[in-house]
Amino acid sequence: MNFIVIGCGRVGADLAFRLFKNGHQVVVVDQAQEAFSRLDPDFRGRTTEGDLLSLGALQRSGIETADGVAVVTNSDTVNAVIGHAIRTHFPQVRQVVVRNYDPAMREMQEAFGLQLVSSTAWGAERLQELLIDPSFRAVFSAGNGEVELYELLIDSLWEGRPLKDLMSACGEAGVVVALTRAGRAELPSAAQVFRNGDILTVGASLEGIQALRTRLQSGPEA
Amino acid sequence: MFVFIAGGGRTGAQLASQLISQSYEVRLVEHRRELLARLHQELPTEVIFEGVATDPKVLREAGLERANVVVACTAEDPSNLVICYLARTLFQVNRTIARVNNPRDAWLFDDKFCVDEKITQADVMAHLIQEEMSMGDMMTLLKLRRGRYSLVEEKVPPGAKAIGISLKELGLPDSCVIAAIIRRGQIILPRGNATLEEFDEVLAITDAEGASRLAELLAPPVYPERPRKPKA
After folding, report:
1. A77·B82 Cβ contact <8 A
2. Adjacency order of strands within the sheet including A174-181
3. pLDDT by residue (tens digit) across A29-80?
4. Does residue A113 share a domain with residue A50?
5. Binding-face residues of A in 52-71 toward B, CB within 8 A
6. How many CB atoms lie within 10 A of CB A209?
């Protein structure tokens, strides 16, 4: 597929190289020629130097035939403007993803309805989880880590108890995604009874998973 | 009327003080420390709001919701675009005006970013200079309907072609109407048979074509003598 990476900082250079290694056509755009020195020496995509907001630079990068564009400069305002301009002027581009740099600028970027990736917020969220409890092993992060999927191991403490007794601990801060028993997953009902060794996959916020952990360890209420 | 100005550079500050002197309610948002010190000397404290104007929280706290007009005149084109877009989509502001710093960015300033009116500094200057060159002493008092028509004023110099000819015979195009003549301090509302005298001041509502025809009729017959610069 054809991808354009706008902004060749650390994120842009790394992303461009990953896409290239996976066999895609990649064009990297930056306003400073020296930024391209961040690219891996084995990168064989195209680079284009130009004023990022100019129509000419976008056209030179092949925007008309691009499948997806990542806008990853270190200015949140520039990212939002380029993202919105591409979505409105070049609606045939299937996917536009924009980087969020300063979490304080999230609300502004969200107002444009853009797909955002915030490495700062996501990284901070993961660091916080690991500091609070290293056993919180998230298997998947949604959005920028606001909601994650966790695997919980059910032990003998919960043998014979219904699922709803555990899930009531987190209220609306978590939902059950699957119950895996002997390698087979199913969508359990609230009345489903646990067996020792079950693995419960839940989607939860950080508060939600903390509440579930506490209940899981203290055991069902008598 | 409440006018919300984003950006306290020279343009924003000048606009704010002009509007205040015409008793508009004004709020100006700026975050750069070095500018804020100067702004506080030039403008009343309650007019200035310190914060980043591309942040919806700042806009909310600064009262953008109540604004009738937002003027985005920061030195950054992306910021001006974002401010107009947020003003319309989050705060339902009726009218947005944005400054274009770099003419190369001008293509972005349209309804896609909710910009009602864009002002390109370089364009405006070039336009004004061109007008000045072609129109002699004609002065534009007011632009009407987004600039297609203007209210202009010009003094009739001695020896101008138009002197002594009735207005209806001046051959002015339909797009040019002489609205008033100021003669010795009195306003005359002219009819078609009125004639111009030297030193009259003529007020006309006209488009560009009418203005150039009028300028021709009111031009002095030959180049007037001008004081020349002494040669060095």
Report:
1. yes
2. A138-142, A147-153, A199-204, A174-181, A184-186
3. 999 999 999 999 999 999 999 999 999 999 999 999 999 999 999 999 999 9
4. yes
5. 53-56
6. 26
d(CA A212, CA A176): 11
For chain B, list the domains and their CATH numbers. 2-124 (3.40.50.720), 136-217 (3.30.70.1450)
Domain shared by A174 and A86, yes or no:
no
Taking contacts as CB-CB distances below 8 angstroms, the residues of chain B near A78 are 78
Q: How many domains does chain A have?
A: 2
Q: Does A89 touch chain B (CB under 8 A)?
A: yes
pLDDT tens digits along B87-112: 999 999 999 999 999 989 999 999 99
Q: Is A110 found in the same domain as A10?
A: yes
Residues A52 and A81 in one domain: yes
Q: Are residues A148 and A107 in the same domain?
A: no
- Here the CATH number for the domain that contains residue A175 is 3.30.70.1450
Instruction: Indicate whether A115 and A141 sit together in one domain.
Output: no
Predicted ipTM? Answer: 0.71
Q: In whole angstroms, how far apart are CA B196 and each of A204, B9, B161, B182?
A: 84, 46, 10, 10
State which residues form the domain around A56.
Answer: 2-120
Residue A74 corresponds to which tokens in the numbers above?
A: 């270190």
Which of A53, A84, A105 lies closest to B77 in CB terms? A53
Angle between helices B77-89 and A76-89 (to 10 degrees): 70
Residue ranges in B22-171 assigned as alpha helix (H):
33-42, 56-61, 77-89, 121-135
Q: Does A60 lie in the same domain as A98?
A: yes
CA distance B160 to B222: 9
Flag whether residue B74 sits within 8 Å of chain A, measured between CB atoms: no
pLDDT for position B136: 60
Statement to judge: residues A161 and A99 lie in one domain: no
Q: What is the pLDDT of residues B121-155, one digit of tens each?
A: 777 777 777 666 655 666 777 777 666 888 888 88
The candidate with the shortest Cα–Cα distance to B35, out of B12, B63, B19, B54, is: B12
Phi-psi region of A161 (alpha: psi -120 to 50; beta: other; left: phi over 0): beta
Model pTM score: 0.69
Distance from CA of A130 to the nearest CA of B (A): 31
Chain A hits for B103, CB-CB cut-off 8 Å, are none
Which element (helix H / strand E) includes A123? helix A119-132
